[in-house]
Every structure is written in C-alpha cells, then in structure tokens.
Amino acid sequence: MSAATMSPRERGKVLLVNPNQMKPPVAPLALDYLAHALRESQFEVDILDLCFAVDISREVERYFATNQVLAIAVTLRNADDTFIVTQDFCITRYKEVVDQLKAHTSAPIILGGSGFSIMPQDILSYHNVDLGIWGEGEYSLPLLLNKIAANEAYDDVPGLIYRSQGELRATPPTYLDLSHISAPERSDVDNYRYFVEGGMGNIETKRGCPKDCIYCVDPVGKGKKLRLRSPQSVSDEIEALLEMGIDHLHFCDSEFNIPEQHARDICLEMTARGLGNKLRWYTYATPAGFSQELAALFRKAGCAGVNFGVDSGCDSMLRSLGRDFSVEDLSQAADACRKEGIVSMFDLLLGGPGETRQSLRETIETMKRISPNRVGASLGIRVFPQTKLAEMVRKQGPLNENSSLHGSVSGNDSFFAPIYYISSDLSSDASEYLAQLVDGDERFFFFGTTGGADKNYNYNDNTILSDAIKAGYRGAFWDILRRIGEGS
Length: 488
Known about the structure:
Distance between the termini: 63 Å
Strand order of the largest sheet: 2-1-3-4-5-6-7
C-alpha cells in the first residue's frame, strides 16, 4: 500500500519532542509549525514537551507505556549558549534525551531544528542517530515519514542527512514558498504556559538571511534566500495568539526590516486590523536605513522595542565583521527610535578579527555618545563551522597554536564544541579592560569574567529574569532587565 492511500491511523503516529530546558522557557515554535504541516499531510501527531519536566526519564517512560509511534522528530533549538563565560554546550543534554528515547522504542529518531541545521552531520554522529532534516522541515519531514510508512527508499528526500553503508550523506534542501502557506493554529504547544513562564510569545514572518556577516550561521541553517510570509498570514497567526491571551510577542526573523518593504507591509496590515492597540512586540532589526518614518510604522503596529545587532561602534571593525552599515547608521537608528518612543537595544560582538584596545575604546565611547536605551557588550565570538570566520581561522594554522582562540580548542578542528575568538591584540586582560571602559554605566549589560549576575543578559538559566517574569514582567528579556534596573 502506498502512503498516499493510507489513512492517518494506518500511517502511524508521529511524536514531536522538545528537549530544551533553558529557563526562562522559549516556546518551541518549530513544533507548532511542524505539527500543523504534519496534520495537513494526514498524520496523527503527539508532542512530548520536556521543557517543564522535572524527571525526563519518567516523562519518556510514561509516554511510551501507552503509545506506539511511526517515528520521533526531535527539535534542537540551540547548539550552545554562545557565551564565553558560561560555555554551555546544549548538545550533551540533548543526547541524554535521545538516549532515553532509544531505550523505550525502536522507532526511527529524526533530528532537526535551528541548532541542528548549523552542523547537522557532526550532531547526528554525536547522537548516533541515522536520520536528520536540515533546513525547513514542513515539506521534507512529511515526505520522509510517508516513505518510512510505506517502507520506501528515502534517499531522495530534500534536506535529508542519513546514514548509508556506515557513512553520513546529505541531500540539498528544498526551500518553501512561504507566501502560500496557511497560518498555523498554534494550538499544539502550550503557548500560554510559555507566555506566563517565559514572558512573551513568538512568531516568524520570513526565513533566510542574504547577509555576509563573517560569524553568523543563520544563512547556513536557514539559507541565504529570503522566503516571505504574507502579511495576512502573519496577522492571522497573531490574532490566534491574542485569543489565547498572549499579548507580548517577539518576531524571530534574523532581521525584521530585511527587506524593508515586507516589514512595512506587515506593520500596515497589523495597523489596519487594530492589532497595534492590543499587543506589544519586539524584534531584531538592522540599523541600515532605519528611518524615523519606519520607526513610526513600527510604533503604530504595536512595537515596544528593537534589538539592533550592531556588533561594533567602529567603522573598521564593522567592515572586518562583514557588516553593511556604518556608525552613522547606528546614530540615526537610535535617534529614530528615541523620537518615536521605541526602546532600543544595541548588541555588540567584541573581540573579532582586527579588534584592538583602540577600536574597543572607540566602540564603547560611540555607544555612550549615541546612547541607545541599553547596550549588550559580549566579549568573544563563537566560531561556528561553515562560516567565513571559521575559514579565516583555519587559514591561520593549527587551532591549538592560535592565541586568539579560547574554549574547546584541542582536538576540535570541526568547531563542534564551543570555540571563541578574541583578538590576541587585546591581550589577556581584555575583559578587565572592557569593564574599565564601561565604567559602571547603567546602560550596559556586560557579562564578562568580571561581570555580576545583575548584568547577565544571557537568558540561559537566568534566575533574575525568571523571578521578574513570575512577578508579572512581560516582553523581551533585555527589556525586562532594563525595567528591573530602572525600577519600572
């Protein structure tokens, strides 16, 4: 019998698993989207969300005591937390969950998610699993499951990582035309619980990033080609979340205003529906061309805050990092937000190739002069495989002889475990020097070797954030920390 003629019951049940236990919790957006796609493909779907589990092994055992499944899909949201101070390698904890699943079922396990897609073969090998989907799963996962149900060969499924004759092989992904995809109902994940315990909901309006930042893995995991959702579909999904009582959202796009016209169209649709009066939302954005006119559209649509990934306040470092904007753009973006009453956050990635004490000083002085509401100063850049930074580092010779590298350098030529780049021109006291430059300025979040817990803007196991959310704070994590600091 072919999969096309099977009923949902004959195809078998699919279990979607979220192993991410970072706190404050972030809703597993991928599982909501995948569950929607699987049901449209006539599959039965269960979700095993282990985010809030006290005893993971007991939850897994309880599920399989009464259920049999065709296959299990596990979404890996983060490979690590990308902070040099904590160096939390999430992959090891995910393996514990996968091992628990293996102990209770022989059903095939399929790995996927944004964290998986940035280094899929290494992660698949580490977990000793035979199947993975890199990139978008809404098309490839149902296709793979149909072939598994019909006992057919699946080596032609797009975006598949699979083991064949002892070797891992990969097929190129097929990216979806998101403009024709219906809005998911968002009813499979307990989004309201995530809102209550995590402070905000989430949504995406597009996928892909065409930029060439030397360190970024978004183009690796999500593709360089932009795929845009329709403003109507995005607004329909927002309305579904509002009906659940979720009135603070974060747009998960790499940068919401790329392309700018798409951001404008979404804001206009939201405003036309009156959504700007019902919710507050946050987003990532590029400062390039961010005008007061655009900020006004954001505000009318309900925007409360924008996180600009500016990386540096020094033009030569911006060029070194592959950024396509200038310090003048940063100033205009901060000014546009200030005039429209939108809170702004500037995120810095310090210590990259070419960073010196002089460029570091220039950056901090620039931030103090431009004066966004908050500045996140992160020292050390995570080196991920398949990035220009990784290529650059490899050309410099053996990793364990490179004085700019820190973390799991030995025996880790693939950059699988966390390795961080801090320019050796900064010398060994870079963190202390940065702290001196910041000089206690309350506008800065600085979690370095000398930073205190009150300045930790890494949300991973952040008890200050979690306690604030329990007390009723809502919004982006950086903005919650800002309001705590200001007593508002």
